[in-house]
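Running this now, will post back.
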Amino acid sequence: MNIRVFKEPWQAAVAIAEVMVRSGKPRIRLSHKALSKFAGRIKLADRIICSIENELREYGYLLIRLQPSNSAGGYVIMSTKTLPATRPVDINLLFSKKERRAIINGTFDFDALHRKLMEDEEDEEDEEDEEDEDDEI
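Update: finished.
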């Protein structure tokens, strides 16, 4: 008989941090089911997940929730030690001088950009759905 014992968020974070140490990888994907087991809970309330996220930061790890629409699902745990090696981007190459000026003075059309980004995300989801349908054939 398996008895599930509720864990405090810090206890779940300690176990997850040890998984990271033992794996030797800078990032891993953890299923929702695995996170639930570490927390000793059948249902993971958002407040528990947030508490585990906060506790993991104390050990130098970030917990990132993957979008539910993502077929992989679950969570990514990544070491904050890898972040300083991330290359910076030059916004001068990504935004025109006119766009940068509009962002600074508040005349930039953030609503239009938001709509565009949301459309792009929906397009990606549609493509993933089509790929999933192809896989089923």
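Strands lie at 27-30, 61-65, 75-79. More later if anyone needs it.
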